[in-house]
Request: fold
Amino acid sequence: MGNSAGQPMAGFKQRLARSPEFARIAPFAVYAVLGFFQGELGAESRYWFYIAKTFIGAWMVWTVRPYVQEMRWKLSWEAVVVGVAIFAVWVGLDGLYPRLSKLDAGANPFEQFGAGSAVAWFYIVVHIGGMTIIVPPVEEIFYRSMLYRYFVKLDFLSMPLGRFHALSFVVTSVIFGLMHPDRWLAGIICGVAYQGLVVRKNRLGDAMTAHAVTNLMLGCWIVWRHQWSFW
Reply:
């Protein structure tokens, strides 16, 4: 029983080791699929699926870590500056350009579970923790590490992270922006800034840190100002 139960995990890890593409796509794909079901199975599913994808995403990041060498956090003053600047752009530009999708009211846990309730605060803590600690590595290894280089070379690992390729730089940033249709312009600027950090530093960790700074500030701002539509 124990041996058979461990076989799927062993097979999963073998595939991670064999395929650098799979190691960088799998966390993003799982996170995206679970996100799709948020709100689709009743009002509360928006909250429980986010909690589920955060914990599953954390497990995925931990599992792929040995197979994604560039997924290492790095702290630099440039990363902090970019993170703060993108937060300002994300909030400051909101409503100043057309949206590509209808703006959702967002997940207001106080409305769903009661003002000041423990469940609401649990959700808030998990949400901010997820967007700060889990989302950056999941998205950065997919967009800035794999996709950017894959558009240039199918054997993307042979391309240094610091190599600048104008077309791929633009295309990857636009794709990242369009994945946020309600705030696509801010998303494109965000993609340009984070990819620029990767190219400048020739490593992924600074972009992960910048992404985390942006999301942490955004999460705190959302709760402070009750701007739930940003979720």
Observations:
- The longest helix spans residues 118-150.
- The chain has a mean pLDDT of 95.
- The chain has one domain: 2-230.
- DSSP finds nine helices and no strands in the chain.
